[in-house]
Amino acid sequence: MNVAVPQEGRTSGSAEAASVIEVRNLVKAFYDASGDRITLAATDVNFTVRRGEFVCIVGPSGCGKTTVLRILAGLEQLLSGEVRIDSMTQPAMVFQEASVFPWLTVSQNVAFPLSLKGVSAQKQRERVAELLALTGLTEFADAHPHQLSGGMKQRVSVARALVDDRDILLMDEPFGALDEQTRLTLQQELLRIWERTGKTVVFITHSVDEALTLADRVLVMSPRPGTMVADLLVPFERPRDVVEMRRDKRFWDLTYEVWRLLAAAPEH
Amino acid sequence: MNVAVPQEGRTSGSAEAASVIEVRNLVKAFYDASGDRITLAATDVNFTVRRGEFVCIVGPSGCGKTTVLRILAGLEQLLSGEVRIDSMTQPAMVFQEASVFPWLTVSQNVAFPLSLKGVSAQKQRERVAELLALTGLTEFADAHPHQLSGGMKQRVSVARALVDDRDILLMDEPFGALDEQTRLTLQQELLRIWERTGKTVVFITHSVDEALTLADRVLVMSPRPGTMVADLLVPFERPRDVVEMRRDKRFWDLTYEVWRLLAAAPEH
Amino acid sequence: MTTAHPSLSPDEIERLKAPARRERIYRILSYFSPLLLLLLWEVAAQVALIDRRFFPPPSAIAGTAWQMIASLELFDHIGATLRRVWVGYAMGAIPGVLLGLILGLSAPARRVLGPIFAALYPVPKIAILPLILLIFGVGDASKFVVIAIGVFFLMFYNTLGGVMQIPQIYLDVARNAGATKFQTFRRVALPSALPSIFTGLKLAAGSSFIIIAAAEFLGARSGVGFFIWASWQTFAVSRMFVGIVVISALGYLTILALEALERHFVPWAKH
Amino acid sequence: MTTAHPSLSPDEIERLKAPARRERIYRILSYFSPLLLLLLWEVAAQVALIDRRFFPPPSAIAGTAWQMIASLELFDHIGATLRRVWVGYAMGAIPGVLLGLILGLSAPARRVLGPIFAALYPVPKIAILPLILLIFGVGDASKFVVIAIGVFFLMFYNTLGGVMQIPQIYLDVARNAGATKFQTFRRVALPSALPSIFTGLKLAAGSSFIIIAAAEFLGARSGVGFFIWASWQTFAVSRMFVGIVVISALGYLTILALEALERHFVPWAKH
Amino acid sequence: QEKPQIEFLYSPFADYAPFFVAKELGYFDEFGLDVTLSPKSGTAETIQMLASGNVVSGAATWGAGLFNSINSGATVTIVATLAKMPDTVPSPSPLMVSEQAWQDGIRDVKDLKGKRVGIPGPGGFGLYSVAKALEKGGLTVDDVEAIYLPPPATAAAFANGGLEAGWSIEPFALQLEKEGLGRRLVEDHTFGTELGFIAFNNEFAVENEDAVVNFLAAFLKAARQLDNGGWQDEKILDIVSEYTGTEKETLKGIAYTIRSEDGSIDLTSVREQEEFFRERGALEYEGPIDIESVYRTDLLEKANALLAQQ
Ligand SMILES: Nc1ncnc2c1ncn2[C@@H]1O[C@H](COP(=O)(O)OP(=O)(O)OP(=O)(O)O)[C@@H](O)[C@H]1O
Ligand SMILES: Nc1ncnc2c1ncn2[C@@H]1O[C@H](COP(=O)(O)OP(=O)(O)OP(=O)(O)O)[C@@H](O)[C@H]1O
Ligand SMILES: [Mg+2]
Ligand SMILES: [Mg+2]
Predict the structure, then answer these.
(1) For chain D, which ranges sit under pLDDT 70?
(2) Distances (CA, A) of D261 to C225, D198, E124
(3) What structural domains does chain B harbor?
(4) How far is residue B140 CA from its own chain's centroid?
(5) Residue D209 lies in a domain
(6) Nearest-CA residue for atom 19 of ligand 2
(7) Which of A86, B13, C231, D148 is the most exposed, having the fewest neighbouring CB atoms within 10 Å of its CB?
(8) Is C101 in the same domain as C198?
(9) How far, in Å, from the CA of C188 to the mean position of ligand 1?
(10) Confidence of residue C193 (pLDDT cuts 50, 70, 90)
(11) What is the ipTM of this complex?
């Protein structure tokens, strides 16, 4: 990982102790040598996430959301700036693209992170069964990915990211391919897990509703090259009732605010 | 194509003349020989789509929406039942999965259907430029797909499906990976094209909002093995105003109705 | 055959399973399509389209083969050849796959070793035979080595090609899941490259039999290659063809076996 | 070098471009890594680890090579060999790729022809040489054919393997876009299988030089293979090694050229 | 007591029959030796294996490669003849003309001028043999177009008109005749020509003189048996058939190479061959090679004496 993790960071207790993720003046560009072309993906991105916080990132397509998340996961090198992650475990990531291994069955895919750590077969089976039940895939435990629908594949990725219970969850549109009913169930489950375990979650979504349902804060990014244009606190107390919330004026104000920000500088 | 296209169908004029797509008692199952396992994807699906109609299909993840669309496109064989497509051109499809060719640039990908038909280079360029502008990809005309974000790839697929102007459009969650702003723009453009050209559109979405914004009718599918459980008329006149519509009680009634149908038999 | 299913009629189940069943039957039938070649050859020889002195018809060759089978003469040769091929194949395939994986995943290794392998690959084996004999002696060891060299490069390049084609996302997933370098090899690169590795294994199987035939031409007193050579030297054309057919059949069966393995180990691919 | 960019500092641009630049330099340097082999050999010969009578040190071989270059003797041989390799390569690669594409896309063709090719592949070339000579004569034609056969199977199996790995979605897109069978070959199957095809092209390039070296042992009076063989027959060891180094170098350069082509034609892949 | 062990390199040709016979009929055992016969390919490899000490003994044919290797210091100890051509016809190694060429009127060596002639290689006995045959018609190798092809490939080349004539060897020559592909054109060109020799690794020969003598005695015993009608013996034919992979029927009724009674090498014939290769520019040294320095006759004399005692 190309992420600086200063020693003091780990021993918490300091004034800023609660910040688990700290991104300062992050700049990321891609260089295409064959075309001698530079694509600036994100400029001067700044934000912090406190321990146990649930943060959603929204922003126009191509603004650099995925890029920022990949940098947090240590999968991409930043060009300049600083990223600090204060965690004993590597963040778990749900990728935006299809990312299940075609050569493993559904349950083997979910068990993958556990099997790497040499967890006993019995323990793996138990944990995988839990997550398959959670994501509604129990019946497809032994199916191969090519036998699944798009939404089912996405659920496998989510189950895999949750399986080994890491401190930080990075989720890139994890419920994008799911119908509202299934999405609702999984949102609820995610919140339940988050509340119980005190995980830190960074969650990319395109749905303002979803962001307001889930997040403590919503970070809004500008069009490419993306930068953070707003950091909005979501004032609703938990547990949130989706229907109730919509009766609240603040919900519509916030929705309108996000829309306004997103529409401010349309990409085209 | 394994789709029966009876000759009389083409010459319109009859009582049912306006039905472009007719699906009767469709049953589709997949057989996995190595596991001797049958997966029933859709049972007894019935619906018709009239010429120039915009129909949305919603349904829980894995219920068979993609399967039905693939059968309409002639990419999958049905097990029993009957499918009739009455069109001079093959339906154009936007696939749910990532489907851009990695070896072509963005504009070559969009031009692909035209280039197969031997359209002149000049015409191709013009038409591709139009669609890149429409989907906000002009700047990335010469980029390769691996240099694009998830939403940008999806927009390439949409542009490719629109490029050669076919009569029937089959769209499988075409805007699923797009932020609300970009999605709104593309919805508007799609409606504009649809109204101008009288295309027939079958559109799969997970967003009830989207369905109500776009469709003449919303078809609701039950969980796997999917079947049509409702065929709801969307009563709003066009052009529709997203914000206005939400003030209408009928909007909330319909939304509630769809939710109720989807929640009726949850998959898990 | 027609298992019951709650929502499908027996007729539908029948139709659903038919393609897979048909596929299986076609596959088994197709194993025999090389017999077409023999038929063609027989006809061509019978109508004197081809010179029978050089291409005796398969029926005549079968006669010779029958005598040789009866005298058990062939089986020792087959045994010797198979043993050499097996050992040489394993000696070449294992390092080939391993180095293919390593160079595929490690850019520095690829930069330094890649050109070295590219330079060693076209070295004519027949020219370095003296060197091999000198190092490995005149016995079977040098035959193993000759096969191993041929197999190595096929496996190396096919594995490398397969690894270079692995979608980046799979490596990202492995990394994010905390896979060690070795686990990434074993659990991601290897299975992901399996289709290419199987292409290599099939090519290498065919090549092994080609190479062993050539190696047994030089300095052997057993093996099907020696047998062919000896028949060749005495213009015993029927016998020579028995040898050629036998060695080709051995190679063919090996390739079929590898294809069956591939269907088993790469169940997610089309076949 | 450091182009301006509205939002990046020159320093950032520098750092952004550094990896690509470094990569290019490393690649060029890496082309010379096979010289390490020569160095190793030189040292081994100098400290008498290997017998100089049979393995003269590269320095001694270079002396011989220099004389031969001066006398222009080598160039005719190189020309003859290259010509044969080129023609044979093209004769094998083109049908190999075409049949690989056809069998890859058409299940019936695969069922009928697949086993036939699998049965023909392991037929030992060395054994059927007399037959090839019979049909194609003792001239260059038979050498083209021998190379073409070797190249064909490598290209065929690698192309087939590549086509079988094409994600179904690409074929679906082609079908939906209204591609004809031929357009699907040309516009989808071919580019999608390119990485595997290039693996095949590299393997076939190396193999061609190995095969031509062996083929020029027969009925040739020119070519590097003939030169190696004639030198060995007369125990002119240094001259033989000049030949071996030359033919390996030709193969190596061909592989490098193919890798450059690959970088150009498969820009979306890692290299 | 341990029997001395000797690994001997052979080629699967009838010229090596004495070794097969000595091994299978127990002559090596009789002389207290444990001999392994290992198959090999060409002359150059044999010299290399012996000189480097990887294998202690073997046999090889005369030719440019051999002369050059001796000159380059890859020395071995030559101890006896392997075989020579008989002074009679039919020859085991005739120059043959293709049936087609025969029909086209090539009935004499001198008709071969400018024609394509198959020769197994540019530095060995085959080339010498063809040169001697051409000499009969007043031609040299340069007067014809030499095509380098091994004998089995000649069959194909005769059939498709690729060659007018070619070097040949039994039993291939007989088969060519039987199949109507070719005819013997010259048979009396190499009477008594030395074909090859038996050699040992230098150190081994010095340190194990007795073993070498015993080996030669066993060889001579088998050789004399063969040269005195042994080829009619079914048991011997079985052995040779086994080692050469040639059917017994084919082995019957063809001509074979022979050896001098005492196993000595006719150096005059060797010198003639050396001279031939020098004239062809195939030798990398000046003047006659010092064969005597590597040819030890004393061991052969002792072997003859030992055999006489029996
Ligand atoms: N590997 C790459 N090479 C070149 N450019 C890239 C690469 N990856 C991303 N980009 C560019 O970086 C920008 C940001 O991409 P990113 O994937 O982070 O967007 P995103 O915000 O996740 O968009 P979406 O919502 O569509 O997924 C895009 O303009 C894209 O073209
Ligand atoms: N090739 C296949 N082999 C086996 N089963 C399949 C195959 N394709 C789809 N299925 C099964 O058919 C059912 C319907 O799949 P389909 O892709 O049509 O769902 P969907 O409604 O599009 O779901 P989603 O909203 O998640 O995309 C699923 O249960 C899936 O497992
Ligand atoms: Mg993204
Ligand atoms: Mg779907």
Answers:
(1) 1-4, 270-271
(2) 39, 9, 45
(3) 14-91+166-264 (3.40.50.300), 102-164 (no CATH)
(4) 25
(5) yes
(6) B62
(7) B13
(8) yes
(9) 25
(10) very high
(11) 0.91
DSSP E strand boundaries for chain B: 19-32, 37-50, 54-58, 80-85, 92-94, 168-172, 200-204, 217-221, 228-233
Q: Is residue C157 part of a domain?
A: yes
Residue C253 domain-assigned (yes or no): yes
C25 plus C134 within the same structural domain? no
The domain tally of chain C equals: 2
Range of the domain at C18: 1-50
Question: How many C-beta neighbours within 10 Å does residue A176 have?
Answer: 23
Same domain, C183 and C118: yes
Please write the tens of the pLDDT for every residue from E45-59: 888 888 888 899 999
Q: In this structure, are C101 and C216 located in the same domain? A: yes
Does one domain contain both C71 and C146?
yes
Residues D268 and E302: their CA atoms lie apart, in Å, by 78
CA angle (E229, E230, E234) in 5-degree steps: 125
What ligand 1 atom has the least distance to the C-alpha of A65? 21
What the block records as the tokens of D183 is 């357009």
Angstrom CA distances, B134 to A60, A169, B170, B195, D197, stand at: 15, 35, 19, 16, 37
pLDDT tens for D67-124 read 888 888 788 899 999 999 999 999 999 999 999 999 999 999 999 999 999 999 999 9
For residues A186 and A204, what is the distance between their CA atoms, to the nearest angstrom? 15
Cα D103 from Cα D98, distance rounded (Å): 9
Identify whether residues C204 and C118 lie together within a single domain: yes
Are the C-beta atoms of B6 and B84 separated by less than 8 Å?
A: yes
Residue with CA nearest ligand 1 atom 27: B150
- Distance, in angstroms, between E40 CA and closest chain C CA? 4
What CATH number corresponds to the domain at position C160? 1.10.3720.10
- If asked whether residues C39 and C103 sit together in one domain, one would say no
The residue whose two tokens read 């929705």 is A255
User: Which tokens hold the place of A100?
Assistant: 């299940």
From residue C107, give the alpha-carbon distance in Å to each of A266, C115, D27, D201, D252. 41, 12, 10, 22, 20
Chain E: which residues have CB within 8 Å of chain D? 42, 44, 47-48, 51-52, 63-66, 68-69, 72-74, 116, 121-124, 146-150, 152-153, 155-157, 159-160, 162-163, 282-284
Q: Which of B138, B147, B179, B185 to mutate to test the pocket of ligand 1 (most atoms within 8 A of CB)?
A: B147
At how many degrees (to 10) do helices B249-264 and A180-197 cross? Answer: 80
Say if CB A132 and CB A141 are below 8 A apart.
Answer: yes
The DSSP line for B86-143 is --SSPPEEE-SS----TTS-HHHHHHHHHHHTT--HHHHHHHHHHHHHHTT-GGGTT-
pLDDT tens track for C125-151: 877 887 888 888 878 898 999 999 999
CA nearest ligand 1 atom 13, residue: A41
What does residue B92 show for φ and ψ, rounded to 5 degrees? -90, 140
Residue indicated by tokens 């073997």: E58
Strand order in E34-39's β-sheet? E34-39, E5-10, E57-61, E194-200, E77-84
C169 and C229 in one domain?
yes
* Residue B88 contacts C, CB cutoff 8 Å: no
Core vs surface per residue E149-176: b (16+ CB within 10 A) or e: bbbbbbbbbbbbebbbbbbbbbbbbbbb
Q: What are phi and psi of E211, to 5 degrees?
A: -60, -40
Structure tokens at E104: 């086209």
Closest chain C CA to residue A97:
C169
Residue among E223, E184, E194 nearest E89 (CA): E184
Tokens for B190? 């799609």
Task: Give contacts of D269 with chain C, Cβ < 8 Å.
Answer: 164-165
Residue type, D1: M
Which residue among D124, D165, D232 sits closest to C225, beta carbon to beta carbon?
Answer: D124
